Amino acid sequence: VSRLHTVTVVTTKGQEITFPLHSSFERYAMEFPAESFVRCHRSFVVNIAHACKYTPNMITLVGGQEIPIGGNYRDHALARLHAYFHRESHR
Question: How many Å from the N-terminal Cα to the C-terminal Cα in the chain?
């Protein structure tokens, strides 16, 4: 028995687009440009430019959505977010 897996992309305007996932999420997550996106959870990839704040457990996006930061991704995600916010604050 196979189950249909899907992925949902949320646009900057809040539109949700869902499509079938024909491979692992891991494989799809690697397709996002590393300079703009960060994997922060086994189920989430975030465009860093749309993050407005973060804590060790959560990323808040400009639209108010809160995205969890999973333990396996925490160190990498926090380092990327810190570097991005530091760089942006010095522009």
Answer: 53
